Amino acid sequence: MANTLKLFQKFPSSLRSISTSAPKNDAWLSKIFVRKIEPTKESHSRMLSDKEIIYALQTHNFRPDSKISYLNTIKQTVDFIKAQNSLAAAVELVGSWTVNVGDQDQALHLWKFTGGYEKIDLYNDITSKSPDFHKITEDQGKLVRSRHLQYLLAFSYWPQIQLRKPKNVYEIRSYALKPGTMIEWGNNWARAINFRQNNDEAFAGFFSQIGRLYNVHHIWCYEDLDKRKETRECAWRSPGWDECVAYTVPLIREMHCRIMVPTDFSPTQ
Q: What is the pTM of this model?
């Protein structure tokens, strides 16, 4: 809650109060327009995130006949990083998943860089000079159809990432927002997240810094798909959740979700 209040204080005054007292006959109309955002001299990243931690989200589409071999190259990457004294404390794998529903034959890997872009530069320097790492990436290149990388920041109002014990299913809901709407998205979700913690389902929330911009990723954790259904229905029964959804829908250009399962070597299960 302290992070939520801190975030609200950073927002322009026009964003701190989203009117709930408008006449009923005008309320529906206000929800279909994206409200004007006042200019600010602070970057979105400073207003929405208060961590010197960068996350890297790798999205790999592997060949359907090469899943096991491909995942072995990721495990080799993890072992390589752990063996580097200068990287071991700064770079760690948070989660590794393969997609069950959505873009199949796809894997996502979430890395944490403690120390910001300085540690990313260090990582890139070490890996670019390592013959062992070159061999891993060459082997991996023969097993994948495409790869994508984004650098992300965690929303400051989102609960701290807690690694989960075996075994769960994860849902990543990815949103492409209209340019200029990230602050308003954060303002709404700083309230909305309070409706989504009844079953400890909120795993991580990020917005993009490098790569595809104005992207948001929310990662949820459930015991199974039936628990997901129950949890989401519970949120819709909570007064205020529907309003948060109504205000965020106009900010979205595109969205999709994927159901994922952890790999055997994923730190979070």
A: 0.83
| CA separation for the pair 77, 113 (Å, rounded) | 15
d(CA 73, CA 182): 35
Q: 212: part of which helix (H) or strand (E)?
A: none
What was the pLDDT predicted at 37? Answer: 46
pLDDT in tens, 10-57: 444 333 333 333 444 444 444 444 444 455 555 556 667 766 899 999
Quote the CA–CA distance of 159 and 187 in Å, as a whole number: 15
Token couple for 202: 């909120």
How far the first Cα of the chain sits from its last, in Å, is 27
- DSSP calls for 133-165: HHHHHHHHHTTEEEEEEEEEEE-TTSPPP-PPP
Distance CA 36, CA 143 (A): 47
* Closest to 136 measured CA to CA, from 208, 223, 75: 75
Residue type, 100: N
Per the document, the length of the chain is: 269
β-pairing verdict for 91-101 and 106-114 = antiparallel
Interhelix angle 241-248/182-192, rounded to 10 degrees, is 170
Please name the amino acid found at residue 266: S
List pLDDT tens digits, range 47-88: 677 668 999 999 999 999 999 999 999 999 999 999 999 998
